[in-house]
Each structure stands twice: as structure tokens, then as C-alpha cells.
Amino acid sequence: MTHRDPWRDVDAHAAPSVAKLAQTLEARGRTPTQRRLRRRFLSFVPVRPGATVLEVGCGTGVVLRDAAQRAGARGRVTGIDPSHELLKVARGLCGAARGRAPIEVRKGTGARLPFAAHRFDVALAITVILHVAEPLAVVREMVRVTRPGGRVGLQDQDFGVIAVAHPDRDLTDRIMHGVARHMYEEPYSGRRLPGLLRAAGLEHVRLRTDVYQDTTLEPFTKIFLERRAENAVNIGIVDAAAAQKWLDGFTTLVTGGAFVLTMNYYGAVGQKPA
């Protein structure tokens, strides 16, 4: 691999690392604040009963399961992901459920979707654009497979607007911003989403901003900060001792009831011209 982002090529990693990435997706999916902002976005799109829905970069199927619930028994939900290993997990978690649309998952990439034009009512990419080298190409493909009058929805976090309490603010800035700049093609992807939809030719583009908030160090937040520390060491921003001291600082804040982390999530939706 020529990049540092582990999500760009999940299957290139050893099995324990792939399992950890899958666990991260499911831990995030279970977090109450994440569930709320994800479901608010699906209402904002909206995903309606009977809809045919595509999710690009479906991972383990967290969003697919919510979308299938909204689409109902008359709908149909399809997920696509380049990772064979994540799709194996998704197939195990996305089995049939009463009142829920059937879910199909397929291997493929967002830049070359294996579907005919005008097939879906809704196409989604949630926390994907951050990891994509050419996001406009992916969005244009999503537009191609969406029917005229259908909607394309993008939701992404923005690593330029994370607020996290820590006793050492300078070290925190070095780790948080340094890792984001070194790891991702576009760490501030969230704020770009409306522009991408307009550049792909969509109309009636709307934006919704939600905030992930944690004051108790939820499991997903803990994993997120531990990954930042690990990557900071691998990149050479800090040594292992400094990274551990940084993580210990969060534990102290939690004990004193003073821990805060917030992260902006931007959701943009556009309509394909009729």
C-alpha cells in the first residue's frame, strides 16, 4: 500500500486487523449518539417505504440494516464494498428480518458501480468520502445509477472540527491534526459534500449538520482515540511513551467527570434532475 488509511484496502491487512476494523464499525453503530445522527440523516434524505436503496462502502452493514427497516418489506436494499472480508461479516449480520427490506451485498468499488443506470431511488455513501482518492468520480457514479428524481445522500465526519478536552492542548492538537493530515486524502471531507453534489449535477442540494457528543468515553470514542495514538506513533509524531501518557490524560478526565469529545457530521442530499 502507498497510503496510510487502513480503510482504503481493508483486505490487505492481516486477519486480526480486519477483525478489529469490523469491530470498530459495529461499535460505532451501537453508540447511542451515532444511532441517532445516522437515523436523522436517513429521515433527512429521506428513505421511504418501498424504496430501492444503494449504499456505497457498506462495510459490515450498519447503515444497510437501518435503511432496510425504513424501506420496509416492499423495498430493496443493496450494499457494495471493495472488501471481501467486511462483506462476509455483513452477510452474517444482514439476514432476513420481518418487516425489513431484503438486503443484498456485492463486492465492487464506488468508482465503477456494477449496476445499470437509473436503478435506485436513493444512493448513499456514509463515512466514505473521507477515504476516497477521487470523490467526484464516486458521486458521479452514484448519480448515474439513481433514477431521475431520485436522491443521492452523503454523510461524513469532518476532522477539522473535533473538540476534545485534554490537559495538554498542544500535544492534543499535534496528534489529532497531524494524524488526520497524514492519513487521509481529504481530512476535512464533511464540509465538501454540498459542493460535490452540485459538481455532479444534482439539484435542490440541502445540508444537515449533526454533532457526535460523548462525555463518558464510549467504547467507540475510546477506540477512536487509541487509533489516533497508535497512528501518531507509527507516523513519528510522538513516541510510544508520549502516546500512552496522552491516553492516560483522558482516563483522568473521565474519572473527574470532565471528559468531552464532539465531532461534526455533515449530511448533504441532492436530487437528480428529472
Protein traits:
Rossmann fold; 7 strands; globular; alpha/beta
What is the highest CATH level, the class?
Answer: Alpha Beta
What sort of overall outline do the alpha carbons produce when their principal axes are compared?
A: globular
Mean pLDDT: 95
Estimate percent helicity.
40-55%
Query: What is the tally of helical segments?
Result: 9
Percentage of residues in strands:
15-25%
CATH fourth-tier homologous superfamily: Vaccinia Virus protein VP39
How would you describe what is shown here?
The chain is of the alpha/beta class and 274 residues long. The protein has a single domain, classed as Vaccinia Virus protein VP39 (Rossmann fold), CATH 3.40.50.150. The protein has nine helices and seven strands. Strands 3-2-1-4-5-7-6 form a seven-stranded mixed beta sheet, with helices on both faces. Helix 6 packs across helix 8 and helix 8 packs antiparallel against helix 9. The model has no long low-confidence stretch (mean pLDDT 95).
